[in-house]
Amino acid sequence: MKRKIFTTALLSCCFMICMAAVFADLNGKWKGAITTPDGNAIDVAYTFKVDGEKLTGTAVSQMGEVPIDNGKIKGDEFSFSVNVSGTDYPHKGKAYADSCAMDIDFGGSSSHFVVKRDK
After folding, report:
1. In angstroms, rounded to a whole number, what is the distance separating the alpha carbons of residues 55 and 62?
2. Where are the alpha helices (DSSP H) in the chain?
3. What digits encode the pLDDT tens for the residues 31-74?
4. Average pLDDT for residues 102-116, to the nearest whole number?
5. Which residue from 78, 86, 92, 87 is spatially nearest to 106, judged by alpha carbons?
6. Which one in 16, 27, 43, 90 has a CA-CA gap of 20 to 30 Å to 102?
């Protein structure tokens, strides 16, 4: 009997951890750095707002602040683009509890980077 209760409790904990990962909260501020294809590092900050499957917000870099366009989120995966000086930069990412792993498309070259929740 004790073994059955322990097994049930353990499975319940594992399920809750998995569900927390699937429904990671993307809302809020995130900071990190992108390494461009030519090797330059750009400090970036994102502010995300989630409404259902719609993702909005802003992105800030040394080029200024721009809105997030075409933002979508489903589970822990999301995508959006930002337009900087007339050029669209599509992003795809995956949300975790305290970080987001993203790929940005520089028009043929891509860069993988991680942003962390800004506390």
Report:
1. 23
2. 2-22
3. 999 998 899 999 999 999 999 999 999 999 998 999 999 999 99
4. 94
5. 87
6. 16
